[in-house]
Design goal:
By secondary structure, the chain is mainly β. About 10% of the residues lie in helices and about 40% in strands. The longest helix is centred in the C-terminal third of the chain and has 15 residues, at about 260-275. It is globular, with a radius of gyration of 22 Å.
């Protein structure tokens, strides 16, 4: 895979050739969200082709890339590691804020139009097509002070879409850009299933000791403190009616003293609860060049454990080792 380096003005400086390892992570999984990258080079090549704070790396036609922002050097090993946020990571650092006097930021219309508004002054690095996505949104309410990345992924998941990101080269001596758009998610689960029969390395987990009772504590003191009890049933539905008792009840406290209302406390409690519940996760290392996007649906099965997952891709990690071997690891996650 050809990785291109660009200066702070997004003008290409050449290919990244003198590199040992590359790790580019876009992982939306609730258990370990992460959106950054790392490349390792020899210490004498630490500024190879102008690599510096605020410069870029990207792979045309893919979402592999990001902006350099952190340098770690190990002098005893004569190695240097440059790190930075991926494109999705940069979107995760921009906050969706409700307008003054409003409780929530609510949107309607074509998804690309909504995305362009949210991108705002992150253009021209990020560019949203002027064409309509075809995904129509009606009165979608973003969580309070969520990120553009998280908010858009959640909104699009509701409407069967995904956030499609890919870099495009500019003309000669012109800056590259990162195209961000809303498109329909693809379902590959009936075409391809990864299991012991696949020539790939995979891991599957089934967490059955997640919490089923979340006690949400809001503002106030002692007997006047806001309290909301949330419960999960055997199907993973969340309500305020208890389903598990005795040793089957697994409880946890969510301390959110800055809650402005009971509704605010409940909404943030629901988000926290979904991170702590029972869930199945599946990861597979794919080395044959097959590519999926975050939001696409694929399937995984472990015949021995009798576990099957059909779910959207929530994580995608590109790796290249010191021998130049490339692989992409995909993570799926679904409430169990």
């Amino acid at each position: 895979m050809d990785i291109i380096l660009a200066d702070a003005n997004r003008i290409e400086q050449g290919f990244l050739l003198s590199v040992y390892t590359v790790d580019i992570e876009n992982n939306s999984s609730s258990t370990q969200p992460n959106f950054d990258f790392e490349i390792t080079l020899s210490a004498e090549n630490v500024n190879y082709k102008g690599i510096n704070y605020g410069t870029y790396m990207f792979v045309p036609g893919t979402e592999y890339g990001g902006r350099f922002g952190y340098l770690r050097a190990a002098t005893q090993e004569s190695m240097a590691a440059w790190q930075g946020y991926t494109w999705r990571g940069l979107l995760d650092k921009k906050i969706i804020q409700p307008a003054a006097g409003q409780d929530y930021y609510t949107v309607s219309g074509d998804a690309n139009t909504i995305l362009k508004t949210l991108i705002g002054d992150m253009a021209p690095l990020f560019s949203v097509p002027d064409t309509a996505s075809g995904i129509m949104v009606t009165n979608f309410q973003f969580d309070r002070y969520t990120t553009v990345r998280k908010g858009m992924e959640k909104m699009l998941r509701k409407y069967g879409g995904k956030l499609y990101i890919h870099a495009e080269q500019g003309a000669e001596n012109e800056p590259f850009s990162v195209i961000v758009e809303c498109v329909e998610a693809q379902n590959y689960s009936t075409e391809i299933e990864y299991s012991q029969d696949s020539d790939f390395s995979f891991e599957i987990e089934n967490k059955r000791n997640g919490i089923n009772h979340l006690i949400c504590l809001g503002s106030g003191e002692l007997k006047d403190r806001q309290v909301v009890h949330l419960y999960a049933d055997a199907q993973g539905n969340i309500s305020e009616t208890q389903s598990f008792f005795g040793v089957d009840e697994i409880s946890e406290i969510f301390d959110f003293s800055s809650a402005e209302s009971l509704e605010d406390l409940r909404n943030y409690g629901l988000e926290r609860f979904q991170e702590k519940m029972n869930r199945k996760t599946f990861s597979v290392d794919i080395t044959d060049g097959t590519e999926y996007d975050i939001g696409d649906i694929i399937a995984g099965q472990d015949f021995t454990a009798g576990m099957t997952i059909i779910a959207p891709v929530t994580g995608k990690i590109f790796r290249m080792d010191e021998n130049g071997a490339e692989s992409v690891e995909y993570m799926l996650e679904v409430d169990a």
